[in-house]
Amino acid sequence: RKTIFSGIQPTGVPHLGNYLGALRQWVDVQDNAAPNTTMIYSLVDLHAITVRQDPKQLRQWKKESLSMLLAIGLDPNKSTIFHQSDVPAHSELMWILSCQASTGYLGRMTQWKDKTANEKDSSEKLKLGLFSYPVLQAADVLVHRATHVPVGHDQAQHLEFAREVANGFNHTFGTDALIPPETLISPAKRVMSLTDPLAKMSKSHPNPKSRILLTDSEEVIRSKVKAAVTDSIDGITYDPERRPGVSNLIDILYHTDSRSAYSSQEESAKDLAGRSMRALKERVADTVESTVKRIRASYEDLLHDEFYLDRVAAEGAEKAAKSAAVTMKAVKNAVGLA
Ligand code: AQP
């Protein structure tokens, strides 16, 4: 029996990296699942507040993100879709796991080190919630007894931590209440920024031209791809080390070209070898536009259907709470809280 769980922060409209690295796989899993597979997808708003958020903006982003999950093809009759903060068991399990998690291990997490690199001098500014982010993430996955978690490459380390916490908990309390999950890394594991191809495409990057949003118009997509940082080497080759910008565009092309008959990025680059950078960018913009077009249109319709969005969120929260209650009972029994 398989249970799939994954989450995304409602911190803005998802970008192409979120889609190719995670969301598209959520829909593929849903559409090709064996009958006894459970799919649970969460808008992880408690993760979003590990950095300062404007309440009004956050409320709006939650609505937009839910519309987007439906627009990409998640079906609430097949998948449980809910806001994390509507199910208190996530925070409750997080506390219990916090009493098991090692601060040394958490301090070595790449994401923590990256985010704190600029704030070295001021531990006053560094918040406990940001430090314990992976513990909440472990709780998200473990509270639903997920067996498989589809994520982008940047989350692999956090999932390793979740397994460690689950095994540690089970061992300490002589129980099998928690299930160590497997990580499912999407083939498009790391889509890079268009303006800085050495950094991953991200929602929080200050330059909006660094990412393509799933709501971008065709015109905006074309202008962002046209302005993408490449290099002045002649011809098109796939070489992520020496040509990160060009290789990122080839990656995007490879993963968005639905008619592609190529078995690898190298092969698709070979086909483009004699073409200009401009021709490559035009093809990338074409395939991105054809990937995003339908999603964009259905998002616009859904966003205005508040009644439907509220119903989906309420029903999703109810189903997620039931799923979590089973684990919480076993966990509380094991610890001696119940
Ligand atoms: N560039 C990416 N390439 C492939 N997968 C990606 N993911 C995120 N960026 C890429 C995957 O998307 C899922 C949701 O991740 P998130 O909500 O943390 O999104 P984000 O865009 O990473 O958000 P931020 O605001 O930019 O946060 P930080 O700065 O913390 O990364 C995950 O499965 C993730 O792997």
TrEMBL record:
<dbReference type="InterPro" id="IPR002306">
    <property type="entry name" value="Trp-tRNA-ligase"/>
</dbReference>
<keyword id="KW-0436">Ligase</keyword>
<dbReference type="GO" id="GO:0004830">
    <property type="term" value="F:tryptophan-tRNA ligase activity"/>
</dbReference>
<dbReference type="InterPro" id="IPR024109">
    <property type="entry name" value="Trp-tRNA-ligase_bac-type"/>
</dbReference>
<protein>
    <recommendedName>
        <fullName>Tryptophan--tRNA ligase, mitochondrial</fullName>
        <ecNumber>6.1.1.2</ecNumber>
    </recommendedName>
</protein>
<dbReference type="InterPro" id="IPR050203">
    <property type="entry name" value="Trp-tRNA_synthetase"/>
</dbReference>
<dbReference type="GO" id="GO:0005524">
    <property type="term" value="F:ATP binding"/>
</dbReference>
<dbReference type="InterPro" id="IPR001412">
    <property type="entry name" value="aa-tRNA-synth_I_CS"/>
</dbReference>
<dbReference type="InterPro" id="IPR014729">
    <property type="entry name" value="Rossmann-like_a/b/a_fold"/>
</dbReference>
<dbReference type="InterPro" id="IPR002305">
    <property type="entry name" value="aa-tRNA-synth_Ic"/>
</dbReference>
<comment type="similarity">
    <text>Belongs to the class-I aminoacyl-tRNA synthetase family.</text>
</comment>
<keyword id="KW-0067">ATP-binding</keyword>
<keyword id="KW-0030">Aminoacyl-tRNA synthetase</keyword>
<dbReference type="Pfam" id="PF00579">
    <property type="entry name" value="tRNA-synt_1b"/>
</dbReference>
<keyword id="KW-0648">Protein biosynthesis</keyword>
<dbReference type="GO" id="GO:0070183">
    <property type="term" value="P:mitochondrial tryptophanyl-tRNA aminoacylation"/>
</dbReference>
<keyword id="KW-0547">Nucleotide-binding</keyword>
<dbReference type="GO" id="GO:0005759">
    <property type="term" value="C:mitochondrial matrix"/>
</dbReference>
